[in-house]
């Protein structure tokens, strides 16, 4: 039995002193571990009638694509500004020092489509909150959000109180 957590390593003082970064690249490099993670992230939504999986740049793409294939539906990328080639909606969100934004094509989803949103980590919740706001502008039906891991001490769930289902495989 492959233990997903054993493929995530701690990198101290990255990207700055005092931060312990959770590095998922060993997980991504191990086929059985990656498959187990994707299947486990998809499982809560297997019978939910998901029509599209929305993945947040960039590591949400990795897990989101695998989940979309597992659920037999399409994939919608949410990207940083200026990365999508067609007309977009944009949603700003606050960072510790400044702001950032996420974008999606204006025609990425049909009103009422049942979606899940995927990212690798739930930290402060700002990126996921902005993405959900963006999808609400498209009148998507957000069934849930799925993360590989959650850094619970950063209390990101608090920003996602309007989301019905929040799943994380690992919690730190």
Write the layout of secondary structure elements.
Elements: E1 9-12, E2 20-23, H1 25-28, H2 31-42, E3 52-56, H3 59-71, E4 74-78, E5 88-95, E6 98-105, E7 114-122, H4 126-137, E8 141-150, E9 166-171
Parallel strand pairs: 3-4, 3-7, 7-8, 8-9
Antiparallel strand pairs: 1-2, 5-6
Helix pairs in contact: 2-3
Q: Structural class, judged by helices and strands?
A: alpha/beta
User: In total, how many beta strands?
Assistant: 9
> What percent strand?
25-35%
Shape estimate: globular
List low-confidence stretches: none
Taking the alpha carbons of the first and last residues, their distance comes to 21 Å
| Biggest sheet details | 5 strands, parallel
- Output the number of helix runs: 4
Order of helices and strands: EEHHEHEEEEHEE
Strand order of the largest sheet: 4-3-7-8-9
Radius of gyration: 16 Å
Query: Mean pLDDT score, rounded?
Result: 96
Helical coverage, percent range: 10-25%
